[in-house]
Specification:
Layout lengths: L3 H52 L1 H43 L4 E3 L6 H7 L8 E12 L2 E16 L2 E16 L8 E5 L2 H5 L1 H8 L6 E3 L4 H6 E5 L2 H7 L2 H14 L4 E5 L2 E7 L16 H20 L11
Antiparallel strand pairs: 1-2, 2-3, 3-4, 4-9, 5-7, 5-8, 6-7, 8-9
Helix pairs in contact: 1-2, 1-9, 2-9
Length: 318
């Protein structure tokens, strides 16, 4: 992967000139969004004044908030959509190409739902599945694809329909460097951290998963719980060196890491609370720090190939 010095040089020589024109577009959009926000807040105040006597002050505030948020959401999408497309084509796509010319980028596409479900990392079928910022290609000998994904399920009660996040973050798929026919899922180990040996017992009762796989790496066992359809193949896949790499990857990112191994592929899910690769409307696009942040988010996904040593081919895997 490229280092910070190379990224800064790329920014200065390749990006900065074009970013100056993009900055003027950003300022225009930011002014429109500021005006839209002011209008929405004035409208909210008017709604509160008009409805508080009829519905009560608190009810009027709730109605005002709902209407204001709807206006801002729709307005932001309409006002910022053109700039967002230009930004992603000019900045994110070129950062992807800077990392590796063989990679392709599509701002509107995402990892297919079929592959997300195939991983079985998250067992619940989503009622709403969306994403963007799709990257695909080959790094070294490893075919990869990843995108941002947001999957949700819905519930209903007397107050209406409610949406709940199943997963939001980066979802990565790579060709694994070993042949296998079983299914292995690696999840963050929360039960044992909370309940100790009782937690381990509860994990073994997880009827939605395959059998619990007990491994000999103490540090790995502290961080992860493993389920597999074949105990022997699970240990073949999760070699001591790979378990160490997964543990180090989790420590490096500081995030929960979910993995599964199926159909000779590795699936990796890395949760994020924030949206990735989105333009910062009220911050200058000429600042280097946001560019570095976009690059580091891309590198986290692409670095999985190196971090998990996927380019090292085992036996006959070419």
């Amino acid at each position: 992967m490229k280092n910070d010095k190379e990224l800064l040089e790329f920014y200065k020589t390749e990006l900065l000139k074009d970013l100056q024109g993009l900055e003027q577009q950003r300022k225009k959009v930011a002014r429109k969004l500021t005006l839209l926000t002011a209008i929405a807040l004035c409208l909210a105040l008017g709604i509160i004044l008009l409805l508080s006597s009829k519905f009560g002050f608190l009810a009027a505030i709730v109605i005002a908030i709902i209407i204001t948020c709807a206006i801002l959401a729709i307005g932001y999408k309409v006002v910022a959509s053109g700039y967002k497309v230009t930004f992603k084509n000019l900045v994110i796509e070129r950062l992807v190409k800077f990392i590796d010319e063989g990679l392709s980028y599509n701002a509107r596409m995402h990892v297919p739902k079929t592959l997300y479900m195939m991983s079985e990392i998250f067992k619940r079928r989503p009622d709403r599945y969306r994403g963007d910022d799709y990257v695909k290609g080959t790094l070294g000998k490893t075919a990869i694809e990843f995108s941002e994904i947001h999957s949700e399920y819905k519930t209903h009660d007397k107050n209406g329909t409610h949406w709940h996040t199943i997963f939001k973050g980066l979802f990565f798929i790579g060709d694994f460097n070993k042949h296998f026919t079983c299914k292995v899922v690696v999840l963050p180990d929360r039960a044992e951290k909370l309940f100790g040996h009782v937690g381990k017992m509860l994990q073994s009762w997880n009827i939605a998963r395959d059998d619990l796989v007990k491994l000999e790496d103490v540090e790995f066992e502290k961080q992860f719980v493993v389920y597999g359809s074949d105990q022997i193949q699970a240990r073949y896949i999760l070699s001591p060196s790979l378990m160490k790499r997964i543990t180090e990857f989790r420590e490096k990112t500081g995030r929960d890491i979910y993995l599964s191994f199926q159909a000779s592929k590795v699936f990796v899910a890395v949760p994020y609370r924030r949206d990735l690769f989105e333009p910062k409307m009220f911050r200058s696009v000429l600042d280097f720090e946001p560019i570095k942040e976009y690059y580091e988010d891309l590198n986290l996904a692409l670095g999985i190939v190196e971090d998990l040593d996927l380019n090292t081919r085992i036996w006959t895997k070419e």
